[in-house]
Amino acid sequence: MNHRYVIYSIGKLLQILALVLIVPALIALFETDGGLGARLSHHNLTGFLAAIAVSLAAGSIMATAFRKNKGRIDVREGFAIVTFSWLATALIGAIPFFTYLSAHSGASRFAVWTDAMFETMSGLTTMGATVIADVESLPRSILFWRILTHWIGGMGIVTLALALFPAFGVVAYQMFRGETTGPSKERLRPRLAQTAVILWGVYAFFTLLETVLLMAGDMPFFDAVCHSFSTMATGGFSTRNASVASFDSAYIEWVIIAFMILGGTNFFIHYRIIFHNDWETLKNNREFRLYVAILITASALCVIFILAQGLHSSEWAQNNFKSQTPSIAQATVKTAAEMERVAAPHDLIRRSVFQSVSVVTTTGFVVADWNMWPDFIRTTFFILMFFGGCAGSTSGGIKMIRILVLIKVVTNQFRTMVQTRRVHPLKIGGAVLNESQVASIGSFFVLYIFLFAAFSAIMAAIIPDFTTAVTSVAAAMGGIGPGLAGVGAFETYGWIPTEGKWTLIVCMLLGRLEIYTVLIAFSPASWRK
Length: 529
Hints:
Elements: H1 3-31, H2 36-41, H3 43-65, H4 75-104, H5 109-124, H6 140-155, H7 157-164, H8 172-179, H9 192-216, H10 221-232, H11 250-263, H12 267-276, H13 280-284, H14 286-309, H15 314-319, H16 328-341, H17 345-360, H18 375-384, H19 400-418, E1 427-428, E2 431-432, H20 435-462, H21 466-478, H22 498-512, H23 516-522, H24 524-527
Antiparallel strand pairs: 1-2
């Protein structure tokens, strides 16, 4: 391992983080009342100033002291830079949350730091789960920083660095591999920095377009910007306690549905359509076709089963595990409200499509408490938490391309057993996959499921409800946010014990960086010379 180059690269990334933190710091400066002295000393701003100072100082020292480096640079360095850059960004990015929460909480310092780390890692990994019960009480600087962590983490911290600082040299592609989602890491241009610029350009264009469209639906400017950042990152943080449901607007929901689908689509497809007018790629891309088919099927199943079975009763709502058990009167009011949300046919269709798209793309926005929907739908959504969107998108999960390959492996094995003398090459879109590619995807799937089972067992020992424990891990690894029962659609993760929050923080990082990046970075073998 070339330790010097790893430290130098992380230092450069921290310098970029310091620049990013200036934006919410300026918001904090202007939203605070009083004179300049009072503003500079207010906890809303001091947290950002401290984060900027730490990021800039640590980054400058690391980049300067380890500028000269010699030795081999390969995949180990790339994966180490990605993993430890994400950890460093989370640690420094948690400082503003820690400062704010410390001023408004009587909990211990460690408990507050745990919450700050959870919120930051949830933002960066685009999980979108929160420990803050009343987000509407947060100052705009903190709200914007929450959403900005989504937007940065959605496309990737390292990808942003490559776009702004294209001088990482031969390790750049290894860093790109470690952070970009999916089994294939496609280039759009011979130089990786050009690819990063194009990806961020498309990302920013869609974000701006969604902001304009949301404002056209009478969403306030600040809310429109924040929800656009969150949508394109397929993150799920909102400026409202009730998420998108608080706007109760069909127009806003359909706009967000459209952009959630775009966020869950491979950005290389967007590039081909925007820059080359290549609409055929939508028809020819097998992964995209599976993605659309699952979205349509899940939406249709929601409509069918809600019409056939209705929602759960108020007694069920009261007995379903929550951090605070509701009274029968509260459960009755809750049930009536949820039934009202899906009473009209157009509302049922819209909200079924919205929640299906939100779960499949791992965005996690909510417009209804789908925890109260029929058990078949709840089970279907739980399964879909593992799927995720397309490779090369901002979605989490295993990814559609891997699911497609696994389906092909099973069908080919069946054909081979039936027709023993015939050779059945495994093809995706006309291209034959070799054994190493199939083995890589198969091993990733097995490792993902193994880690899910292991962390579920740990959470089951911490949380006194199996459904909550299991779905919290699935939501964290897949980057969805809401799960079922105690971590359902309108619940927060604030009540989970400290050890449970740290377990989920690990799950978030493993899920976002697709496991191998983190495991290789922490492997003792990787650090041997």
